[in-house]
Amino acid sequence: MQGILAALLNSLEIGLLLFVIAVGLNIVFGVLNVINFAHGGLYMLGAYFTYSVVAYLGLPFWPALVLAPLAVAVISIAIERIVLRQVYGRDVSDSLLVTFALLLVIDDAVRVAWGSGIHVVAPPPALRGTIEVLGITYPIYSFFVMGSALVAMLALWLFFVRTRAGRIVRAAAIDRRMAEGIGIDVPRVITGVFALGAWMAGAAGVVAAPIRAIAPGMGDRVIIDAFIVVVIGGLGSFPGTLLGALVLGLIYGFGGRYLPQVNLVLPYLGMALVLLLRPRGLMGKAAS
Asked: Alpha-carbon distance 186 to 202, whole Å?
């Protein structure tokens, strides 16, 4: 039972962190119809900015939690206005290729700015150590990761359901022409949505920095996992993103403990199975 509980906690930690990353990817797709492979690079920038704030500026972890996602969001605004606006209205494959190129550019920029070595960020003092849960010891910081993801989930839900800005975003996602017809500044909404998705990626990078090795290319693996999440859950579906993230978390959590030899293959097998049985994802909507 202790092994199962440990695997379950690991699954929740992985799944909830993946949700924060993947939901930004899904929001951008839902509004812009763009598959943003550069999302992984923005996640990586969040981790690197955290390292810079802590190591170079000498500030604690908590200011980095505020500053790093904001810096990533500002960079994303420049990316959206200079690059992505050139591919709106084209086939989805065009945006995929452009954003994949941006991911490679960000990877090289990181190598130039921070080098090719591995960097480490320590958890804040208040979140170091372990606690005992039902007979097993588990890192305190891992509970912080899960709690942060739950707070982000609740905040996003409240934003889209309870606020006027959230309803405007939903209107732009459903029918862009209709939104323009009723006076909504759609280009500004698009920029804001892209910045929101980038902020989510940057925030996930900050939270992941103390538990992941910070190195060039760290965003490549993450964007693949995020893409698997949205495929399993359904492109454009907020609940589907959560479900897909939890499914992938369970695959990694239990696969890593009980099937380590094939753990790297299991996510792709899971995605293939979902595509065979539910081509639009577990909670994806059928085309009208």
From this structure: 24
**Helix 218-233, helix 2-32: angle, nearest 10:** 80
pTM equals 0.92
User: What residue segments make up the domains of the chain, in order of their start?
Assistant: 2-13+36-217
Instruction: Tell me the range of 3-12, 24-33, 144-153, 271-280 where mean pLDDT is highest.
Output: 144-153
Supply φ then ψ for residue 149, to 5 degrees.
-65, -40
Start-end of H helices in the chain: 2-32, 39-55, 61-82, 92-114, 140-162, 164-174, 176-181, 186-208, 218-233, 238-258, 266-277
How far apart CA 226 and CA 31 sit, in angstroms, is: 17
d(CA 128, CA 210): 10
pLDDT of residue 94: 86
CB neighbour list of residue 172: distance below 8 Å, 6 or more residues apart: 31, 179, 184, 186, 189, 190, 193
Angle ∠(110,116,121) on CA atoms, nearest 5: 80
The pLDDT of residue 288 is above 60: no
**What gap in Å lies between CA 127 and CA 144, rounded to an integer?**
8
Query: Which whole number is the average pLDDT over 203-223?
Result: 93
